[in-house]
């Protein structure tokens, strides 16, 4: 493969890029399409008190499986793992479409989440394998555009299916997309994997799964399904802590650890992981609280509040597509720091305008935040990928993806607790009077997270400007 080959749909790697975009689209649409259909789902299946688990178990299954899939991809190759992900997502979608009660639907969402845990990080790992450092930013623009389109198409499709057909089509629509993506990956994506005998770290995988499941479950449901001081919360964090300590001890002796903790001794990996953690929390602060803030305070219709939030995902792919030119000129660290500064400015602006709710102001601020995050997320991931070879790229990419999921879970817990405490101190009823101070407190916390993310970005090691030869470094032996 020529290392100067064009990047785009008509290039030699174009069919693989299309397959990766389709795979990303499955996850991106699913992230937004179900929210608008919740009333229809509850109306059909009942059990209103159980519907939050539709989102919690999906996020949980996705997050805890990412590190294991990533290690398996570094061991056996990317192709089988991404195909397993697409297959599980297809199976989960079919089962969700025929779910007969809320319990079954929640269980089948776990299967979908396990599929997403393999498919989402594998697409970015494959991008790191196939494209040079200079090309990756352009490809990141293509992938980011999928998220931008999905942020608008997802809620619209969910609303259309719920109103005019059935909520079950929300899951049925995934079937042709999965089949096309799977076929394209089988047909066009080929990789060369060194075949040798491996020693699977079963104990490490089991302990990591138990530990992460307990911790993330505690973060997601603490203050929601049960009180923070309850036996459930204490039990989750205790089990999680014990399992993770045992995991760390096991990994020190494992021949092929599922997650080599030594990678975190590298400043670049640690700093970019913290940046990704902050990105996940920032996204939660905006996407989870802005709609209720606008709808409750001034009666904005859900479609308009959703579009205000969507402005964030419109600024993101725009800057992500431009980030390559920037980091090739000024370096990864400077680009990530600049993006974090812009995101911080947007976060502060969101806190400042909180007492004056307006969907147009929020949309403008969200666009600025998204623009900053595009210059933060893509270059930090590419910097981490570029620092390792094929055998570690899956783990590094998976760690980055897991950190973002963990940041989202942590953000849900922290921001939710802040909002609930403010509302409780102002009468205990979420209305136009209480939602503004509660949202303002959340947006101030979001600005604090953005400041910490900027500190993590500044901690990244300094890097020099990439030379012309390095920009054209040969991609992996895969097409």
TrEMBL record:
Which SUPFAM superfamilies does the entry link to? MFS general substrate transporter (SSF103473)
Gene3D superfamilies documented for this protein: MFS general substrate transporter like domains, Multidrug resistance protein D
Where is this protein primarily located? membrane
Give any Gene Ontology cellular component.
plasma membrane
Q: Which residues cross the membrane?
A: 16-38, 50-69, 81-100, 106-127, 139-161, 167-188, 200-220, 226-250, 271-294, 300-318, 330-354, 360-384, 405-423, 435-459
Q: Where is the Major facilitator superfamily (MFS) profile domain?
A: 16-464
Q: Could you confirm whether the keyword Transport appears in this record?
A: yes
PROSITE patterns in alphabetical order = MFS (PS50850)
Is Cytoplasm found in the keyword set? Answer: no
List where in the cell it is found: Cell inner membrane
Picking any one GO molecular function of the record gives: transmembrane transporter activity
PANTHER family in the record: MAJOR FACILITATOR SUPERFAMILY, VACUOLAR BASIC AMINO ACID TRANSPORTER 4
What this protein is called in its record is MFS transporter
Upper classification of the source organism reads: Bacteria, Bacillati, Actinomycetota, Actinomycetes, Micrococcales
């Amino acid at each position: 493969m020529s290392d100067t080959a064009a990047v785009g749909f008509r290039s030699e790697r174009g069919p693989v890029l299309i397959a990766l975009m389709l795979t990303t689209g499955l996850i991106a649409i699913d992230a937004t399409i179900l929210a608008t259909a919740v009333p229809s789902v509850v109306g059909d299946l009942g059990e209103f008190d159980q519907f939050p688990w539709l989102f919690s178990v999906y996020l949980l299954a996705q997050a805890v499986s990412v590190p294991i899939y990533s290690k398996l991809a570094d061991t056996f190759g990317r192709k089988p793992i991404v195909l397993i992900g697409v297959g599980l997502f297809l199976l989960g979608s079919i089962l969700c479409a025929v779910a007969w009660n809320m319990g079954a639907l929640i269980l089948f969402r776990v299967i979908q989440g396990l599929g997403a845990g393999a498919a989402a990080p594998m697409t970015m790992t494959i991008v790191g394998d196939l494209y040079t450092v200079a090309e990756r930013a352009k490809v990141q623009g293509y992938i980011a555009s999928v998220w931008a389109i999905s942020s608008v198409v997802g809620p619209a499709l969910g609303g259309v299916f719920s109103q005019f057909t059935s909520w079950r089509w929300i899951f049925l629509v995934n079937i042709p997309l999965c089949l096309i993506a799977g076929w394209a990956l089988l047909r066009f994506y080929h990789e060369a994997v060194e075949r040798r005998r491996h020693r699977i770290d079963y104990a490490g995988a089991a302990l990591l799964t138990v530990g992460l499941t307990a911790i993330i479950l505690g973060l997601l449901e603490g203050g929601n399904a049960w009180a923070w001081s309850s036996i459930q919360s204490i039990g989750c964090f205790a089990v999680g802590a014990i399992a993770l300590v045992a995991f760390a001890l096991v990994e020190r002796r494992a021949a092929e650890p599922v997650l080599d903790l030594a990678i975190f001794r590298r400043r670049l990996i640690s700093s970019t992981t913290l940046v990704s953690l902050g990105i996940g929390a920032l996204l939660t602060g905006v996407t989870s609280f802005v709609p209720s803030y606008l709808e409750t305070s001034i009666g904005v219709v859900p479609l308009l509040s959703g579009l205000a939030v969507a402005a964030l995902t419109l600024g993101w792919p725009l800057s992500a597509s431009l980030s390559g030119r920037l980091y090739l000129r000024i370096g990864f660290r400077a680009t990530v720091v600049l993006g974090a500064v812009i995101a911080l400015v947007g976060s502060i602006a969101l806190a400042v305008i909180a007492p004056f709710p307006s969907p147009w102001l929020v949309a403008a601020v969200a666009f600025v935040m998204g623009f900053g995050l595009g210059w933060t997320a893509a270059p930090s991931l590419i910097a981490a990928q570029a620092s390792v070879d094929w055998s570690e790229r899956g783990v590094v990419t998976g760690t980055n993806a897991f950190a973002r999921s963990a940041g989202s879970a942590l953000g849900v817990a922290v921001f939710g607790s802040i909002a609930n405490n403010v509302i409780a101190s102002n009468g205990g009823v979420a209305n136009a009077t209480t939602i503004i101070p509660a949202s303002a407190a959340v947006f101030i916390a979001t600005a604090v997270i953005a400041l910490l993310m900027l500190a993590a970005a500044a901690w990244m090691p300094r890097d020099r400007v990439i030379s012309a030869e390095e920009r054209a470094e040969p991609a992996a032996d895969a097409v």
